[in-house]
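Lab meeting minutes (informal)
Scribe: AK
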Amino acid sequence: MFNITKMKIDKPVSEVFEAFVDPSRIGGFWFSSSSERWEEGKVITLRYDEYEAQGEIYITKIDLNKKIVFHWVQMKKEIRSRSS
C-alpha cells in the first residue's frame, strides 16, 4: 500500500518539522510518544497511550524541513510446529 498524507498547518516549516522528529514534542499533536529522534536508518517506536497501542516505523529518508519518508515495520511471528 502506498499513501501520501498532507495537512495544512499555520506554523513555520522548521517548527512543524521539529514537532515530528523531536520525541519531546511529538506527543503534543500526533502520537503520545516517540522512542527517539527521527533520523534516517533508525527504527522508532511510536505509542498511542489512549489506545494502549504502539508500532514501529523505519525512517528511510529525511530532507531537513522538507520531507520525512518512513515505512511501518511489520511484526513477524515465527510459528513452530511441535510434534506430539
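Next up, CB showed the second protein from the same session:
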Amino acid sequence: MSAASVAVALALAFAETGRPLQTVVDVTPATLAGALTAVVGLFVSYQAFRGYRRNDSRPMLFLGLGIFLVTALPFVVTTALAGPLGTSDAAAVLAWTILEILGLGSILYALTGA
C-alpha cells in the first residue's frame, strides 16, 4: 500500500466520521501528578525486584508487586486505557479499586507472611 493510498483512506475516514482519527488527551495537573506517582512507583518496584533477585527474598518480590499494583498500574489503566477506549467512570474506578486491593494485599503478605 503506497503512501498516497493511505492518505486517501485517512481522508475518506475523516470525511465519513467528521472528526479526526486521533485521541486527544488533556494534560492536567492531576494527570501530571499521577504520572509522577507512577514513575516513582515503578522505580521503587524495580528496586524491590532487584532486592528479590539479589537476596532471593520472596517478601521483596511481593512488596515490589504490591507497590507496582498500587502506584503504576492504576494510572496506566485509568489514564492510558480507560480514557481513549471510552469506558465509563464507574468501570475506571472499579478497576482502580481492584488494583489497589490486590496491591495492598500483596504488601500485607510481604510484611506479615499471612
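CB comment: The CA atoms of residues 27 and 33 lie 10 Å apart.
No objections, moving on.
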